[in-house]
Amino acid sequence: MRILVTGSAGHLGEALMRTLREGGQEAIGLDVLSSPYTDRIGSIVDRAFVAHAMRGVDAVLHAATLHKPHVATHPRQAFVDVNVTGTLNLLEEAVAAEVGAFVFTSTTSAFGDALAPAVDGPATWITEDVVPLPKNIYGLSKLAAEHLCELMHRLHRLPCLVLRTSRFFPEDDDVPERRDAHDDANLKLNELLYRRADIQDIVDAHLLAIARAPEIGFDRYVISATSPFTQDDLVALRTDPASVVARRVPGYVAQYTKRGWTMLDTVDRVYVNEKARGELGWRPRHDFAGSIERLARDEDFRSPLTHAIGAKGYHRTD
């Protein structure tokens, strides 16, 4: 199978390219930036470039995007150009090339204001049934691209799955108050409880999506680490998450105490991956409970792939 990976110089794109090539797959990397994993240098906004890159391709993993941090550095039009028009170019050329599977990397940011609970309400339980309310051009552009994927499936029967991934980047948190309140590793482990996934698990979900897309046709999936919480925990998570975590993952207390780490003061939402696990056969390996077990063995809770890729930063202007 010949697989086209867009955004091959980015975090996820490189992770996909590394994994595919190590597995003996023929993977073609496409990006506007040169990298060891980029074979075609150019923009997905350029329709002719996309058409040429799509020749002979059997499946597409579309990870190229402008990200949320780019909202501060890029005009709204750039998001429309890259995230919407670029996706449409890829979809239409995939149809023309009779590609067998198209996987679009979307984001839980598409939910936007739907993630925010009422002031005195319980944490929100986020499944694929929650109606998105994008709060910025990033979320809006990704949601528009999702709808394009659905349209191309309806019109042309292109097998197309949308993966709404939670945060997986290794960079420092973009909220100063959160950076100041917790050690970076401490914060990222806390987030595995409800809003983060390890990049190895994100990659695994994408590869399963390629295999399942022809059978499923079209659907959307929340891709985030398996949370230990249930809906019965949502009220307590707003005011006392430490007690909830101690009940659900008792071993965490000793490991946090040993490192001087602290739990969050509040949890406002929980991403639910049940549908992806059931329909894609996805088995994320880096959840909070498993990470605590790794810490107890003095192991790193992050995957080797996370370290192999490292931090890349966000704020390029090209």
Describe the structure.
This protein has 318 residues and is α/β, with parallel strands linked by helices. The chain has one domain: Rossmann fold. Helix content is 43%, strand content 13%. The chain is built from 13 helices and 9 strands. The strands form 2 sheets. The protein has a 7-stranded parallel β-sheet, sandwiched between helices. A two-stranded parallel ribbon has the order 6-9. Strand 1, helix 1 and strand 2 form a beta-alpha-beta unit. Helix 1 packs across helix 7 and helix 3 packs parallel to helix 4. It is globular. The mean pLDDT is 95.
Helix share bin? 40-55%
Number of strands: 9
Cross-sheet strand order for the largest sheet: 3-2-1-4-5-7-8
Unreliable parts: none
For the structure shown, list the relevant keywords.
318 residues, alpha/beta, Rossmann fold, two-stranded parallel ribbon, globular
Secondary structure elements and their pairing?
Layout: E1 2-6, H1 11-22, E2 26-31, E3 40-41, H2 47-53, E4 59-62, H3 76-96, E5 101-107, E6 124-126, H4 137-156, E7 160-165, H5 176-181, H6 184-191, H7 199-216, E8 218-223, H8 234-239, H9 241-248, H10 252-259, E9 269-271, H11 274-280, H12 288-296, H13 304-309
Parallel strand pairs: 1-2, 1-4, 2-3, 4-5, 5-7, 6-9, 7-8
Helix pairs in contact: 1-7, 3-4
The gist of it:
By secondary structure, the protein is of the alpha/beta class. It has helices at residues 11-22, 47-53, 76-96, 137-156, 176-181, 184-191, 199-216, 234-239, 241-248, 252-259, 274-280, 288-296, 304-309; strands at residues 2-6, 26-31, 40-41, 59-62, 101-107, 124-126, 160-165, 218-223, 269-271.
